[in-house]
């Protein structure tokens, strides 16, 4: 009886976790990337999603306080960025969820990342993609379609992401 109870509780927990994860997803593989505008602290426009047409785009959401985000950004710096930064068909958007430009400038002074960081104060851009959970990345193909989503960070999935970027650029 005790084993049945435990198994039942595990099943209920798994179903709740699955439902919560589904509720955080606003964009799924196969969907078109939402339109958005990245805006600086002073209100000026930094980048419009419409300017990315015809490019393979990796949209990555992170926070400066998030340990898995730190691991992922270190991998972006050491592996992904050196591989793709000079490719005219690729654009990397590393977006600080709920951060200001000034906060990201201070953060980058400590980290010395060579890729650009974009602020998303108020989670305006993030909220068009998801409800919660970072790090989170969306790979968009040249037609504007989401072809890969990753949530969290692990080395194996990061390697797969790099392969998918390479394939999409071809």
TrEMBL record:
Residues 27-170 form the Thioredoxin domain. Residues 1-19 form the signal peptide. GO terms for molecular function: antioxidant activity; oxidoreductase activity. Keywords: Redox-active center, Signal. Pfam families: AhpC-TSA. PANTHER family: PROTEIN DIPZ, THIOL:DISULFIDE INTERCHANGE PROTEIN DSBE. This is Thioredoxin family protein. It comes from Bacteroides graminisolvens DSM 19988 = JCM 15093.
